[in-house]
Amino acid sequence: MAIELVINATSYEVRVALVENGTTTEFYLQRQREKGMVGNIYKGRVVRVLPGMQAAFVDVGLERTAFLFVDDVFIGPTGLEEQLKKEYGCGESIQYESIQLDAATRRSPGMNIEDLLFEGQEILVQISKEPLGTKGARLTCHISIPSRHLVLMPTTSHIGISKKIESEAARKCLWAEIDALRPPGMGFIVRTVAENATREKLENNMEFLLSLWQDIQERAKRASVPSLVYEDLNISLRAIRDLFSHEVDRLVVDDQATYDEILEFVHVFAPRLKERIYKYDGELPIFDAYGVEVDTNRALGKKIWLRSGGYIVIELTEALTVIDVNTGRYVGKHNLEETILKTNLEAVKEIAYQLRLRNIGGIIIIDFIDMEPEVHRNEVYRALTEEVKKDKSKINILALSEFGLVQMTRMRSRENISRMLQEPCFYCDGEGYLKSRRTTCFEIFRRIGREAGEIKGNKVIIKVHPLVADIMLREEGPSVEELERETKKRLTILPSNGMHIEKYEIIWE
What we know:
Blueprint: E1 3-9, E2 13-20, E3 23-31, E4 41-50, E5 55-59, E6 66-69, H1 77-88, H2 113-116, E7 122-129, E8 138-140, E9 145-146, E10 150-153, E11 159-161, H3 168-181, E12 187-190, H4 199-222, E13 227-230, H5 235-242, E14 250-253, H6 256-269, E15 277-279, H7 286-289, H8 292-298, E16 303-305, E17 311-316, E18 320-326, H9 336-358, E19 362-367, H10 374-387, E20 395-397, E21 405-410, H11 417-421, E22 422-424, E23 433-435, H12 437-451, E24 459-464, H13 466-473, H14 477-487, E25 490-495, E26 504-508
Parallel strand pairs: 1-14, 11-12, 14-15, 18-19, 24-25
Antiparallel strand pairs: 1-2, 2-3, 4-5, 4-7, 4-13, 5-6, 7-8, 9-10, 10-12, 16-17, 17-18, 19-21, 20-21, 22-23, 24-26
Helix pairs in contact: 9-10, 12-13
């Protein structure tokens, strides 16, 4: 099966797609004004401690305060000693080891959030989950810093090996090498791509991570509160680090500057990948050529048709996602039970695919078509558990209930594709979703870039809704100017009150 990593980079956004056998299975997006924050490290201040929730709100300088659960709290020897003195009046001779801290969390199993944190306290934290919907970002004090082959965990002494490395001999060998190389008290996770890495490669990765952690600590000492101390790699380089494994046949990128940046990055961290990196020079836009544009647009719809004629409906709510399976136009060939089973089995593959592509997380309820024979219910359940094994996210599935429902959970750390590309519809008072104004704006840019070479005129009039025009003229003004330079055409933007916010008209002159 051919697996390709496709990157579409422009001045206003970068889109990354993992394409397996011609089908987009994973989609990532980073916009210049909406950069992702997972992995960033901040020096923050505790603004409120909530004993009833065993959590705290921390100001890290974002629009909304972030939250920190008690299990994600870590306070080092000095910090914990000082805190215990303040809270309990302990003498100068208190020892870090004397309170028998849990090795994984560096806190006593009996300690509550109010024992560890207080309002006004300065604390070093890392974002583990993006702000989702109305919720602020989730934080952790257990810092993790990834590189190509290793992940450094400076707050624990644990050594972990990727579950995808199945050879027991390889696991033992890697564990022994990391244990011999690491400084005392430093934890590491060995990533899948490190299965055949040499000792020298592991040592170089480890030295890089330890040097980076030392630099982060020095910056944290000097930083004001709240402030960003360390920013993770941009989306293109994260794709190289996290997605470009030995299973990926090649990476294709359409932007020269991004291509050069990637080559420079792999030259340092993974020289062997160079021969699998290609600059795209086709006539069609890269996402059109690889079918990604069609797949992502399809992923925005609620109803997904199956090849047999059946369909599934995906409804996102604040608390959970509901997926309904229907036979639709499919009437079968033999009997009702076979028709239902075939529709459900086809739906299983599409559901597993859509969960991964859309990055749907949290609680998920699937309403399959009712099946009388127990053997059919078991077959559908087995098929679902098998299909989701392709997903990198952690998934838990309960057996079919007596009502024919499957309950499952899927972990996510970023917004799903609908939230990224759409915004609440003000035409229907938030009951539905539209393409966001910025998405419509960038869609116009892509269309002009695609068609400009075929049009002889040197002037383009764009009629759009006033809200889209406002973004194009104000926030995306530099992007408009760059597009004019690239296409050598003059762009005139005309607001039109009668225009639907998703619609636009391009007039070439």
